[in-house]
Design goal:
The chain contains 14 helices and 13 strands. The chain has 463 residues and is an alpha+beta fold.
Length: 463
């Protein structure tokens, strides 16, 4: 207790001596203000003056005492009256050092948590047992579109409607059972709602924790929209790969079948005729005059030449020798000339703006096969009479374009045919181009012709 005139200590109890670890003579008669550190002195002076001026008790808290060791005090400044006359100030003090230290540590821990949570890339949301949002980090704002001010105090189901939250909705249905709910501690997928109303997929991990008897839930939420798109693309690619494998096996079998027919019906028949011719000559050698043998020999030579031509044709179909001997430019030019000759009245215009050395070896056969397949499709389906073949090389990029003025078609309808497992011609062209690192495009409209284009953006660097 201080006297009525100044802030000098007039009476102290043992409790204050124990807190301050001082003797009575160290305190009595001295200014009470000297027992506070500089950072708390002005505060206590203001509390003390307020009690003195107003005549009302004034509470103070967490003031730093000036002792050899750290002590924090809280208490009251209470005006004392005797017979209605002011008789000094009673100051009560409570040592709250332990509570103050705990409070500081908690504050530091909260600051660290907020720093981590605010810089996290995943949304972090904390709710109480009623589902009211009490924490909302910046990533959650980015994911959902709501600011913290818009959602704090609101129910979690404003952003995660119960009808699309899978088994997470039941967490808040029975709070007394929530702490042991099966969803706690697991990472599961669900759906959530953005501020603009769109529903999107999320991955959510839930943790629960208690303070005394209150239960809280923290959710770590990740927007997995991009991942879902990738998964869908991978599933589509896997299906495409399965379809491709099936079509490749079928194509190989069809190629073997075609080659077997050509060998049997073409070359086999020619060789059989040659065999009969030779046998006939041998059987009639003694009966025939020398002059009669020449026509038979000429006929046999013609048959043998047909066999040679047939072998060359089959070989050219399997792998054109001109491609290896003279290069891709000569091979495409030769093919276009032969195609125009065989498929009259179709005319073929060529615009070759590339050199053989500009084109990587692995792309040359692809260019030839695309040209071959595209022109075959023109004969079969387009009813065109003009075809333009363009091959160019610019800044390392290789581009092949084949356009016809035929009837055209609905590309989407053709794509549907491809999805059903048919349409091997278009699929094989697309797959040849993409497997060699290129981009395949097909454009067509009814009565406006068709353009097949293959582009290798970085053909040279790819080699």
């Amino acid at each position: 207790m201080t006297d009525e005139c100044a802030s000098c200590s007039g009476h102290i109890n043992k409790g204050f001596l124990r807190i301050m670890d001082m003797l009575p003579e160290d305190i009595i008669g001295r200014d009470i203000m000297r027992f506070f550190c500089t950072d708390s002195l002005n505060l206590f002076h203001d509390y003390y003056r307020e009690a003195l001026v107003t005549g009302n008790p004034v509470r103070f808290d967490s003031l730093h005492a000036a002792t050899a060791f750290t002590i924090f005090l809280s208490g009251w400044c209470i005006p004392r009256y005797v017979d209605g006359a002011f008789n000094g100030i009673i100051c009560t003090f409570t040592d709250i050092s332990e509570q103050y230290t705990t409070k500081v540590k908690l504050s530091e821990s909260e600051t660290r948590f907020r720093s981590i949570a605010e810089t996290a890339t995943d949304g972090i949301i904390t709710v109480n047992k009623s589902g009211e949002i009490i924490f909302w980090n910046r990533a959650a704002t980015f994911i959902f579109g709501y600011t913290g001010h818009e959602v704090l105090g609101k129910n979690i189901f404003c952003i995660m409607p119960e009808n699309i939250m899978n088994d997470h909705g039941k967490i808040f249905a029975a709070p007394e059972k929530s702490y042991t709910n099966d969803a706690i501690g697991r990472t599961v997928e669900g759906r959530a709602k953005r501020k603009n109303g769109t529903i999107f997929p999320i991955e959510i991990s839930l943790a629960s924790w208690k303070i005394v008897s209150d239960i809280y839930f923290t959710a770590i939420i990740r927007d997995i929209t991009h991942r879902k798109h990738i998964e869908k693309s991978l599933q589509h690619s896997e299906q495409e790969l399965k379809n491709l494998s099936s079509r490749l096996l079928n194509a190989h079998e069809q190629e073997r079948k075609r080659l077997a027919y050509e060998l049997h019906d073409g070359l086999g028949q020619i060789l059989s005729a040659a065999k009969i011719g030779v046998k006939t000559m041998l059987d009639g050698k003694k009966k025939q005059k020398v002059s009669d043998r020449k026509p038979s020999a000429d006929n046999l030579l013609a048959v043998i030449q047909s066999a040679i031509d047939e072998v060359r044709r089959i070989s050219r179909d399997l792998r054109p020798s001109i491609l290896d001997d003279l290069g891709i430019i000569a091979a495409i030019n030769s093919f276009c000339i032969d195609f125009e000759r065989v498929n009259s009245p179709i005319t073929v215009s060529r615009a070759i703006e590339a050199r053989d050395e500009d084109i990587p070896e692995q792309i040359k056969i692809v260019l030839y096969r695309i040209t071959q397949e595209a022109c075959t499709n023109i004969v079969r389906h387009s009813h065109a009479d003009r075809v333009t073949v363009k091959l160019s090389s610019v800044s390392g990029a290789i581009q092949l374009s084949i356009h016809d003025n035929g009837t055209g078609f609905d590309v989407q309808a053709i794509q549907a045919i491809k999805e059903s497992g048919r349409g091997l011609g278009l699929s094989s062209m697309k797959e040849r181009v993409e497997f060699s690192g290129g981009v395949f495009t097909l454009t067509s409209l009814p009565e406006q012709g068709t353009t097949v284009q293959a582009l290798w953006p970085q053909a040279r660097t790819a080699t």
